[in-house]
Design brief:
This protein is α+β, with helices and mostly antiparallel strands. The protein is built from 10 helices and 14 strands. The strands form 4 sheets. Strands 3, 9, 10, 11, 12, 13 and 14 form a 7-stranded antiparallel β-sheet that branches.
């Protein structure tokens, strides 16, 4: 049942996107000849004419469309009629092209606002789950049992530095090792204690009295820099690195913490103050492992509005960043999910956590659809905005033949991408 709910929500997004185009087009006087859910290839499952429009349901559930007389060479609407999209004023054309994008953006805002208002927001806090030792370079002492061969793992390959390693080589490795202090290390006795080796030092955070289970609430420095380490969703994970990045060597740092344990309720525990001098270690690390303590809390109207705007803005930015990484090869296309993958993932979310998770995912997908349709890639809505902008700027339109071939080429590429994603979805089901 949860999978059918998710399928319905995704289908509703596509339908409402196209309804946006249809309603604005009709208000502008453009004739709508067809309204389709799915792509017009292969068998048509349902076709019915109502109020002068052919309503179609196609077997390929990859989007939808609204068809104007401009799209039909056999249309009985005269070439110079204002019922054609191309004969409308440029502002009307832009409004029609933007209608679907606007609907998706509004849906995302409404759904997120509703979920936050009804079910509350996820408040996050940073909790210390362990301590990371800091590596330092020290002269070997006489007791060989305290020294050893230091091994670490790099992509599954085990590498070693030991007492037989020349000092120059050890120094070269030192910087690399210091950036891998959270990896697994292995120490074993060696015979020669007369070389410079890497040894452990206690985590600076542990040395000033921080304990496993403590929750970081606030941080401040002697230079007046302050940061709240509590917040909603991912705010705390961004706040701590930002705070440390503003601190300078020699600053005295003060942390307000809620004392607790990994099974307790941090917000009910007593608070304490911990002080330490930055940078704590040569690697400028606190030497702690952090986890997120999350709970649902009710939010007032102001917080709801702020969170909705913040989350959606961040999603839009991350969408463009993700697209950039996809086109530059930093993200593999195999990681993309199509309609099958989204329905499967959403159905599992609804089963495990409730309908609110499905609604939240629907809001996320809605804003993704809005961003994707803004791209100036034919035949997406953004390409029409490019055509309209060109005509407004240069007082002439692109030749019809050019637009036809651009739209056809873009459509073929887009269909290829959709087929790839759909095939990838199906393969994932069998893995």
């Amino acid at each position: 049942m949860s999978y059918l709910i998710m399928l319905f929500l995704i289908s509703l997004l596509v339908i409402l996107h196209e309804v946006g185009h249809m309603v604005v087009a009709q208000r502008c006087g453009v004739k709508v000849e067809r309204f389709g859910l799915g792509l017009p290839f292969g068998p048509t499952l349902l076709e019915k004419e109502w109020k002068g429009i052919k309503w179609c349901l196609h077997i390929l559930p990859l989007g939808g469309y609204v068809s104007f007389p401009d799209d039909n060479e056999d249309s009985d609407v005269p070439p110079d009629s204002p019922q054609r999209f191309e004969n409308q004023p440029l502002l009307n054309q832009a409004a029609i092209a933007m209608a679907g994008i606007t609907v998706n953006a509004v849906i995302a805002v409404v759904l997120m606002f509703a979920v936050l208002g009804v079910w509350g927001a996820i408040q996050s806090q940073l909790q210390i789950t362990g301590f990371a030792p800091v590596l330092t370079e020290k002269e070997a002492v006489r007791n060989p049992s305290t020294l050893g061969r230091l091994g670490f793992y790099d992509n599954g390959k085990r590498l070693y530095l030991d007492a037989t390693t020349p000092i120059e080589t050890a120094v070269l490795f030192r910087g690399f090792l210091a950036h891998n202090i959270d990896q697994r290390f292995d120490v074993a006795p060696v015979d020669n204690p007369k070389r410079v080796l890497f040894t452990y030092e206690t985590s600076p955070a542990q040395a000033v009295g921080l304990q496993v289970g403590d929750v970081l609430l606030e941080a401040s420095s002697s230079k007046g820099i302050q940061s709240s380490l509590e917040g909603f969703y991912s705010e705390p994970t961004q706040a701590l690195p930002s705070f440390l990045g503003q601190c300078e060597i020699g600053d005295d740092l003060t942390f307000q913490v809620a004392e607790g344990d990994l099974t307790g309720t941090p917000k009910l525990a007593k608070t304490a103050t911990r002080q330490v001098t930055f940078p704590l270690s040569e690697s400028r690390k606190l030497g702690i492992y952090l986890g997120l303590v999350q709970e649902k809390v009710p939010v007032d109207l102001g917080t709801n509005l702020r969170l909705t705007a913040s989350v959606l803005t961040n999603m839009v930015v991350q969408n463009f960043v993700g697209l950039g990484k996809l086109f530059t090869g930093q993200i593999s296309p195999d990681m993309l999910d199509g309609p099958v993958g989204v329905v499967r993932f959403g159905g599992e979310l609804i089963e495990k956590t409730g309908i609110q998770s499905g609604l939240w995912l629907t809001a996320v997908i809605s804003i993704i659809l809005a961003v994707m349709n803004l791209l100036p890639f034919p035949p997406l809505d953004g390409s029409y905005l490019v055509y309209i902008g060109y005509e407004a700027l240069f007082k002439r339109s692109f030749p019809p033949t050019f637009r036809h071939w651009m739209n056809l080429s873009g459509f073929i590429v887009l269909m290829g991408m959709m087929i790839f994603v759909l095939g990838n979805d199906i393969l994932k089901l069998f893995r």
